[in-house]
Structure formats: structure tokens, C-alpha cells
Amino acid sequence: MSSTLSHNIKPLRPAAPNPGFGAEVTAIDLRAIDDAGFETIRQAWIDHQFLLFRGQSLTDHDLIAFSRRFGELDHAPVQENGQRFVPGLPEIYIVSNVIQDGAAIGSLGAGEAVWHTDMSYLPKPPKASMLYALEIPPSGGDTSFCDMYAAFDSLPDNLRARATGRRVKHDGTYNSGGYIRQGVTPADDPREAPGALHPLVCIHPESGRRMLYLGRRRMAWIEGMDLPESAAFLDELWAYATEPALCFTHRWRVGDLVLWDNRCTMHRRDPFDATARRIMHRTQIKGAAPPAA
Ligand code: OGA
Ligand code: MN
Fold first, then answer.
1. Mutate-to-test residue for ligand 1 from 52, 98, 108, 117, highest number of ligand atoms within 8 A of CB
2. Contact 241/192 with Cβ under 8 angstroms?
3. Pick from 7, 189, 250, 293: most CB atoms within 10 A?
4. Quick one: which ligand is closest to 76's CA?
5. Could you say which residues of the chain have pLDDT below 50?
6. Residues 31, 1: Cα–Cα separation, whole Å
7. How does pLDDT run across 140-178, given as a tens digit for each residue?
8. Mapping DSSP to helix (H, G, I), strand (E, B) and coil, where does residue 118 land?
9. The whole model's pTM is what?
10. How far apart are CA 265 and CA 144, in angstroms?
């Protein structure tokens, strides 16, 4: 793919208040991009925060090869069924409700997956994730994205001042499907739960822009606050972060690949009919550094 690729980058929501959030890259085969084409994609991913590529036909090895162009990969996270990955390919995390021979082939079931950032309970979360659609239910299972730069920008001055300089605890007990990660004993007190503390307001290492960094709501805690004060403050911040006018909902087709910047977005998934099949393969690209203020 040549340098003309930049003409193929189309914002998904040009009329939104945050019009740069999300873009589709059209007429591209991710198996056949040259270095200049890759650099255009990499820059578009920084500029637009998430990118949609439709009509791909990728093997797991193709998915890994494209992912590795962004850097070293993290292994699939531990989920409710342990670590479900493609046999022999621990980099590929399977998101699926499909049961085969009595065992779940993947994670997150068919219920709602609540707003979250991937693996932010780790000291160094992945900088990006990409999800590739192999099987899609006839309806439901849409994935939404929210814009954590716009969330920060939309905060009133008093909330911005209150958030700046704080750290938030990112819980490692529950995944976004509400399931307990295998091997974790749940505690009711977020201060004692496994997880990492990260700044609540971070500076993106590549764009230099400020963003809110929330991770997930359940069992979150703002360091130095008592639990009711922390909960009330988090609820206020979350209302800004998930303001529908600043979010985008993606309806999947088989062959779609969505790549997101895991530092400056969050995502969630709608539930779908549990008797339908949904199979997605995901990779996650290692972060270069912990989130920083
Ligand atoms: C993920 C995730 C939601 C979905 O893969 O990180 O949250 O739509 N998936 O499958
Ligand atoms: Mn996720």
C-alpha cells in the first residue's frame, strides 16, 4: 500500500462535537502494506484513537504479523475461564460465548461488557488492542468507544482541578463481563483488591494531549479519599467520560478489524442472544511505559 493511503482515511463521525474521534481506513488489505503505508496507519491511529478496517481476511498469523508492526505483544489476559487463547498462540485472546465440548472457547460470554480500558489493572497496560470479527450474531454485540481526551476537555474547571494530581486504583478482580478472573479471591474493599494505581489525568506519550484515565468503574478508588467521597467523585467523572454525544457505536460485520488506542479510549459491548455465536480474536500491544501525568 502506497503513500496515497492517506486519502483512504475517513472520519467516522465528521459532524460530532469531537469529529476526529474514529476513522475508517478504506480499500486496504492489512496483509499487504508496505512501511510507508504502515506509518500512515500508525499516525492515523494516534490522530483518530480508533480505526476500522472492513473486509479483511486474516489468519491468526496474519493478525499477529500486523499487530507486531506496532511493537511487542502482550499475552492474552487471565479471564473467568483462565487464559483462553488460540492453541500455540498465547498472544491471541478469544472473546466468545461459544461452548465447545462442554467448555467455553473464550471469555466474556454473551452479556454486556461494561465500559473499560484493557488490562489497566497492570502496572504497564497495553498501548493498543485490536479485535477481529470471525463470527457475528444477527443482532446485538455492538461495541462502543468513548473519547478520553474529549472527556477531559469537557470537564468543568472545578472537576478538572480536583482530578489533577490524583491517582486511581484500577481493579484486577472483575473483568468487563462481571466475571471474577481465575485465581483471584474477591475482596469488597477496593483499597485491598489486586490492581494498579495510575494518575487520573494522564498525558498521552505520543500526542502530548491530556486525557482522563479511568479504566473501569467497578471497585475503582481514588487514592486518599474515603470510599463514599471517592465513589461520588468517580460517578461525576464517569458521567462526563461516557457522555453519549462523544461516543461511537460500531456494528460489526465478519471481516472487520478495529484497532484502538487503549490509553485514550474506553469501550463497552452490548449483550446479545446467548444462543447465537460470536467469535472475535484480539491482540494487545505492550505499552512502552506506565500511564503518566
Ligand atoms: C475486548 C473487549 C468487547 C467486544 O476484546 O477487549 O472488550 O465487543 N471486547 O467483544
Ligand atoms: Mn476490552
1. 108
2. no
3. 250
4. 1
5. 1-2
6. 10
7. 999 999 999 999 999 999 999 999 999 999 999 999 999
8. coil
9. 0.96
10. 10
Distance 262 CA to ligand 2 centre (A): 9
Give the pLDDT confidence of 105-128 residue by residue, as tens digits.
Answer: 999 999 999 999 999 999 999 999
Q: How many CB atoms lie within 10 A of CB 145?
A: 23
**Ligand 1 atom closest to the CA of 267, numbered from 1:** 7
Q: What is the pLDDT of residue 1?
A: 44
Q: Is 195 left (phi over 0), alpha (psi -120 to 50) or beta?
A: left
Measured CA distances, 203 to 6, 22, 87, 212 (Å): 26, 19, 37, 9
What distance, in Å, lies between the first and last C-alpha atoms of the chain? Answer: 37
**Among 77, 127, 134, 133, which Cα is nearest to 250's?**
133
Give the residue whose CA is nearest to atom 10 of ligand 1.
95
